[in-house]
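Dear H.,

Thanks for agreeing to be a second pair of eyes. The structure we're designing against is below in token form, covering all 483 positions.
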């Protein structure tokens, strides 16, 4: 294949990014190596096909409106290691002429993602303005309401599921219906149920995800939604309840998340809980749009925030979708206009990929280590001698070895933070404990003087804990590449 010099340069840049060889200037901001801890190597990222199973998902949203370029970022999916990807179905992009479907854009995405070992879960949305009462094809748009539009919606849903059921095991119905102030919980319940029944008719084994709630505080909306389903024998059509809910300090979200989970479980304790969309920007406030835009961010604080949300969820047994793979270029006519810089891949103005950000590397490390074999121990709580810290314990199903994630949760992630020397006590099993920086991926041997064992209780002293998750783990759990 003939290439111009510019093409060669862009391809080389892309391949270097996939391999994780990003620029080192941003990493200079990280804390120094733990004093007295010997560096023994780094986490070796595993690809999606090397990871048998996990609960991790990456966002691939807004292709329905052509705000991201799948063909540019698809090469980064396998090296990232997430086992699922969230996509948006795009009724209005597919049916531009009444009764005629053009699936070419999705045919170039869904089978390709599945072939890379990344299972698509597809959101059925938004409206379609070619129909009177068809709703809008944008965030915060109204659901279709007219008889003609609802019939057209049903037909499109049936066509979507029929076409992609081989590659799509899960379907999410709508996105953030609660941010449209005219929607009611009961109205959304009726719309959800009609859609869910069509999906199950075509693909009985499909898992159904409701509802992509933007807020975790609108309990009345959720109660009305669930009441409608309960009254119409519809609770069986929810396998997973997904929610979003952005907060500058991720730790502050969990009390309200628990209230939401308690409400949902009061209707059906079998419904799973999933964080369906969360991430932080990587640029100052004046540059980005979307949630959390009122704060100044950098690639470092983005990586810290993303790690805190991912492992705050995971330690509580909640599956997580990291928002998002690529920066999003919103255009005029939508809910907002500009670049949403929550992507873990930095884009060029034409939506092609410039390079991975620090958050891409951080996510690789998490997806590599925290697979389905490393289970959160919900009944074991590590203790520390510092206030305002999060700590979660994990156990490997096969080896029985232990890992502990730790971070300071007091405030929004900062550009600079002095690690806290911490004493950590946890029940478990460590043969050779190591300290892992989940942003840089560097792995350090924990000195013998810094840990002791009494029975199954391990105590670690003078462990430097940052304002982003670090990991204490048995070395066998880390997928180490030698220094």
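And this is the sequence the design step returned. I haven't edited it by hand at all.
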């Amino acid at each position: 294949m003939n290439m111009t010099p510019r093409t060669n340069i862009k391809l080389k840049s892309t391949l270097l990014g996939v391999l994780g060889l990003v620029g080192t200037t941003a990493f200079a901001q990280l804390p120094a190596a733990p004093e007295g801890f010997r560096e023994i190597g780094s986490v070796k990222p595993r690809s999606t096909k090397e990871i048998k199973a996990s609960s991790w998902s990456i966002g691939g949203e807004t292709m329905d409106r052509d705000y991201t370029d799948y063909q540019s970022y698809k090469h980064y999916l396998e090296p990232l290691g997430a086992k699922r990807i969230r996509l948006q179905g795009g009724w209005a992009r597919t049916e531009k002429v009444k009764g005629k479907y053009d699936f070419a854009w999705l045919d170039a995405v869904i089978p390709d993602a599945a072939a890379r070992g990344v299972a698509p879960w597809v959101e059925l949305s938004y409206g379609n303005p070619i129909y009177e009462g068809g709703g809008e094809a944008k965030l915060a748009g109204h659901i279709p309401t007219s008889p003609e539009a609802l019939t057209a919606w049903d037909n499109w849903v049936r066509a979507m599921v029929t076409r992609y059921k081989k590659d799509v095991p899960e379907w999410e119905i709508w996105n953030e219906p609660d941010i449209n102030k005219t929607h009611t919980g009961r109205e959304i319940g009726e719309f959800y149920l009609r859609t869910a029944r069509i999906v199950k008719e075509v693909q009985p084994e499909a898992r159904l995800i409701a509802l992509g709630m933007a807020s975790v505080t609108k309990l009345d909306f959720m109660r009305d939604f669930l009441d409608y389903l309960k009254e119409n024998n519809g609770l069986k059509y929810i396998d997973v309840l997904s929610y979003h809910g952005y907060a500058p300090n991720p730790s502050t979200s969990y009390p309200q998340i628990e209230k939401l989970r308690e409400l949902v479980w009061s209707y059906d304790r079998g419904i799973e809980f999933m964080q369906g969309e969360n991430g932080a920007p990587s640029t100052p406030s004046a540059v980005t749009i979307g949630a959390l835009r009122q704060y100044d961010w950098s690639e470092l604080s983005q990586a810290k925030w993303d790690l805190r949300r991912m492992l705050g969820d995971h330690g509580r047994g909640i599956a997580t979708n990291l928002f998002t793979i690529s920066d999003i270029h919103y255009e005029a006519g939508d809910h907002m206009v500009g670049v949403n810089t929550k992507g873990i891949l930095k884009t060029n103005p034409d939506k092609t990929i410039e390079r991975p950000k620090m958050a891409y590397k951080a996510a690789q490390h998490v997806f590599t280590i925290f697979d389905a074999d490393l289970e959160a121990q919900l009944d074991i709580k590590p203790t520390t001698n510092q206030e305002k810290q999060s700590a979660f314990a994990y156990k490997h199903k096969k080896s029985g070895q232990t890992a502990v994630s730790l971070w300071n949760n007091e405030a929004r992630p900062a550009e600079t933070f002095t690690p806290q020397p911490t004493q950590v006590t946890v029940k478990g099993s460590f043969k050779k404990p190591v300290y892992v920086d989940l942003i840089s991926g560097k792995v350090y041997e924990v000195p013998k003087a810094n840990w002791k064992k009494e029975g199954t209780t391990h105590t670690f002293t003078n462990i430097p804990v940052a304002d982003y998750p670090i990991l204490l783990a048995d070395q066998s759990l880390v997928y180490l590449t030698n220094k």
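Two observations from my side: The chain has a mean pLDDT of 94. The two ends are 37 Å apart (CA to CA).

Warmly,
E.
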